[in-house]
TrEMBL record:
Pfam families: Ada_Zn_binding (PF02805), DNA_binding_1 (PF01035), HTH_18 (PF12833)
GO biological process: DNA alkylation repair; methylation
This protein's name: Bifunctional transcriptional regulator/O6-methylguanine-DNA methyltransferase
InterPro entries xrefs: Ada-like_dom_sf, Ada_DNA_repair_Zn-bd, Homeodomain-like_sf, HTH_AraC, MethylDNA_cys_MeTrfase_AS, MethylDNA_cys_MeTrfase_DNA-bd, MethylDNA_cys_MeTrfase_DNAb, MGMT_N_sf
Reaction catalysed by this enzyme: a 4-O-methyl-thymidine in DNA + L-cysteinyl-[protein] = a thymidine in DNA + S-methyl-L-cysteinyl-[protein]; a 6-O-methyl-2'-deoxyguanosine in DNA + L-cysteinyl-[protein] = S-methyl-L-cysteinyl-[protein] + a 2'-deoxyguanosine in DNA
Essential cofactor(s): Zn(2+)
UniProtKB keywords: Activator, DNA damage, DNA repair, DNA-binding, Metal-binding, Methyltransferase, Transcription, Transcription regulation, Transferase, Zinc
Signal peptide: none
Molecular functions per Gene Ontology: DNA-binding transcription factor activity; methylated-DNA-[protein]-cysteine S-methyltransferase activity; sequence-specific DNA binding; zinc ion binding
Gene3D superfamilies assigned to the protein according to its UniProt record, in alphabetical order: DNA Methylphosphotriester Repair Domain, Homeodomain-like, Methylated DNA-protein cysteine methyltransferase domain, Winged helix-like DNA-binding domain superfamily/Winged helix DNA-binding domain
NCBIfam families per UniProt: ogt (TIGR00589), PRK15435.1 (NF011964)
Domain HTH araC/xylS-type stretches: 72-157
CDD domains: ATase
Amino acid sequence: MLDNDRCWQAICERDTDFDNHFVFAVRTTGIYCRPSCPARRPSRMNVDLFESAAKAEAAGFRACLRCAPNGQSLVEQMDTLVESACRLLDVPERITLEKLAARIGVSASHLARAFKTRMGVTPRQWAEHRRVQRLQAALPHARNVLDASLESGYSSTRGLYEKADALRPSQRRQRGLGETLHYTLAECPLGHLLMATSPRGVCALLFGDSPDALTRDLLTRFAAAQIVRDDANLRPWLDRVLGQLHEPARASGLPLDLRGTAFQIRVWQALQTIPPGETRTYAALAADLSTHPRAIARACASNAVGLLVPCHRVISSSGAMGGYRWGAERKVRLLRVEQTSPVREPQGSTQDQN
């Protein structure tokens, strides 16, 4: 049974989350559309709701040519286009935007706009990020840096040293010589918690069901670094985190060492502006950052600093919880505690962007 008021709200907001839940038909035009159709909004008194395109057509309405409600939506078309581009880009050989667009069968400008909207970065930036990931995976096992760079798609080792980085490629190959991370573990209301720090601040705050699983997760995330357990020295910081779990308005104010792409860090900074007890939708954040809700969701999923970078405060436009890297149940519990805790003036936190 369709909720007329909620469906009309989705039509007014052009909410893509409802595209596969219903269609609306306009009696004065005889056309039916998706909720996200970009055409001018009709008068509510002329609108009929249907659970599917087939039912709208059975009632005598024809499909809108602009939003194609009986086929792939514009969002789905964009997803297919960008997924094809990602597959073609994810190889060591470099490919220009023009050749990439020609292989997919669209214009270079259309591909560039769709990719930036969907992924938050340009095709070139995404390909470079994947090249860096391949290099980091290859370095520990390669005979030398040159072999690893050539295998990953670099034409020489020169490009590896042109940008500032916390670790040089030779250090990464030696599994993080030059960088030491300290970590501690504790039980908490959400199961178990692991906090890891670098000299710049908290670089990981992970939740899990067991200390062993959390330690493996940390070693996977920072395979190039030296990992040292340090319960005594990290206890004051850990107490502040546990305090925030019990009383969310007591923002810990700990320095953060956020490690991600420029786009991911923009999203994580936006998350830190959401006050405890409040939520934002993926769509609203996407609108603020001029990107796509799925790009926001991926950045949230890549967040390694739970709680302090509160990705749990982002939900779907429908009101559903949406995903959470550490499990939907933990997300629900965090939000419930925040929404029932007294409000207190938050303290600021600092961060280092890598």
